[in-house]
């Protein structure tokens, strides 16, 4: 195993990184304010990326990937830094040597995560994964027959399954908006879609940001604001948010955000990051806290119930501790997750966001150049809708994207013949009778612009070879 490596980044070094971070902040991919100059700045910063190869090479050295393969499916699985692996190893051995239990609410680790994600320890839970976080969020709320959830037709099973349970168990009505695909959309379109669908019985909105199907970053802040205005609960499936975005959970204004620890954040498998709003902060979300009961917990009073939820900025109860405390847990993985978060903080979350999204923007531009902009399922021109996932139709004959076997073969051949790990995913497209099986690329901090250029060349070459009837 490689030795631990620390990143020797000089924060005072003048480089394009500050420009990159600034461009990302201006662009506001989490649904902040768009700036007309932001895209141009982002493009300039992206082209300057190669100039700081030394820094990102050092970052690449923190991981232990198999040589010869380029991993671009982080949306499915990340990869732990070596120092997290070492900690997992030593903590597992210590637990075994000392016959230790895992009864804890893991406050120390929750404090680390709270610092990383702009919230307080009583609001952040190390869940089992995103799906687990979505179950905690949805199943813990109080539902009555006829209550309605407004969601989308591009949700993951991680959210769809608990919504189906609510439907069957309580008679909750699930209403879905049809999401557009491609580059001809703006953040306002999503607000309008949801706004029109929300009715008098709507109790909550559930949306993925970004969606795993097209890599479209739904504008979290704008949608959370809409939920506040409509007086409904907002639940974000943010599986891809931790580790990709420099997110401040308070600032997002949502009630719940369930993210993965094991994807972009590169924590151990079996970890997620769940934000549960637990105080009323008027500058972010002035709405009263919804009634909530932890559903999987060992920490609930046997008589008397929970204290009333706070109406101000001081919590009346450590809700996250209640959700976190369920019997004896796998302590080393939580320590590992906190370690990966520390590594990200050391590198700089703004830089990671700017770097990973810039590579994706570069990829999107190259796809638009070679295949035409209509091949993109991910938007590229509204900076509020972009992220480090890129979904597109790789086939020269666009109809071929409806053929699952052909799409599966494309992904397999990209690995077998060119050494790139990417994936495909199916989804409905407005106006098409059949689902599309687009491919999806994740650009993370161990990739660079050369990898992206070579990926494009490989995909173009393969799409030429596969252009048969
Ligand atoms: C949008 C989205 N939600 C939920 C999940 C499920 O993630 P997990 O394995 O962390 O439960 C995924 C996994 O890819 C996803 O992309």
Task: Please tell me about this protein's structure.
It holds the Pfam family Aminotran_5. Residues 1-40 form the signal peptide. It is a single chain. The chain is α/β, with parallel strands linked by helices and 469 residues long. It folds into two domains: 16-47 and 55-72 and 348-465, Alpha-Beta Complex (Aspartate Aminotransferase, domain 1); 84-344, Type I PLP-dependent aspartate aminotransferase-like (Major domain) (Aspartate Aminotransferase, domain 2). It has 15 helices and twelve strands. It has a seven-stranded mixed β-sheet with strand order 2-8-7-6-5-3-4, sandwiched between helices. The longest helix is centred in the C-terminal third of the chain and has 23 residues, at 349-371. It is globular, with a radius of gyration of 22 Å. The termini are far apart. 50% of the residues are buried. The model is unreliable at 1-26 and 32-36 (pLDDT under 50). The protein binds pyridoxal-5'-phosphate.
Question: What keyword list fits this structure?
Answer:
469 residues, alpha/beta, Aspartate Aminotransferase, domain 1, Aspartate Aminotransferase, domain 2, 2 domains, seven-stranded mixed beta sheet, three-stranded antiparallel beta sheet, 40% helix, 12% strand, disordered N terminus, binds pyridoxal-5'-phosphate, pyridoxal phosphate
